[in-house]
Structure formats: C-alpha cells, structure tokens
# Entry
Amino acid sequence: MALNKSLLEQAIKSFLIEEKTKKDDGASSIDNIAAKLATAIDTFVKSGTVTTTVTTTGSASAQTGTGTGSIS
# Structure
C-alpha cells in the first residue's frame, strides 16, 4: 500500500490541537507531542509496502540472495 501522507498530517494536527487546549506549564506538552509524533511517524512508515526484485544464486534447493527496494 502507498504511504498515506494525508493520514499522517491529520494525526499530527489532531494531537497538536489536543495539546493546545491543555492548561499546563508546557513542559509535559513537549513530551506528549514528541511521543505522539514518534508514534504517528512509526505508524506511517510501517504502513508502506516494500517492493523489490531478488536475484538468487545457487541450486534450486540452496538459494541465497539479497534485494533492495523502495517503500511506496
């Protein structure tokens, strides 16, 4: 599945609005925003699909190989 940038943007806006309405000293807001931003980015990156082609060497029963690809 392709990465959903608009969903990430909505998540960020949501927790920024949530923190904006709180009445604290601000120190806990920084920690809350950092934690929620890290979670949103982690979810965003893990939602992508990696597509790659692997070329192998060896016999049909003993395959080895590596692949590189890009996340979409």
